[in-house]
What we know:
mainly alpha, single chain, 124 residues
Amino acid sequence: MKEEDRRLETVISAVAEAFDVDQVALVSGHDRRATTESLRTARAIVAYLLHEDLKLSYPQIARAMGWRNHASARSASVTVEKMMAEQDDGPVFTVLSRLRDIVTQRLQLEIKPPGKHMSIKETP
């Protein structure tokens, strides 16, 4: 598996767990009539993190999320930016910070050399 794919999957699984949504539903395109507010927010946060942290292009994000085109990815990312602007250091910042910590920890644990096992307590 390519590094970019592994990082993408790590972000998606962390967001799915944090929002208690099904990972398949998270990346299966979107139909506004058939999704909950929680699922829409989770999708927007995935798009934002993939663009801002992993530096994926909007077309790459759209393909990964099962969206028709890059405009959906851009719109989702802008939604998170607007939430951040409205909430000045509010819940969105907390969620993003927590997710970034989770993703970083998971990626660090996955890249340890063979034979070097690290417990949660030993995490730097």
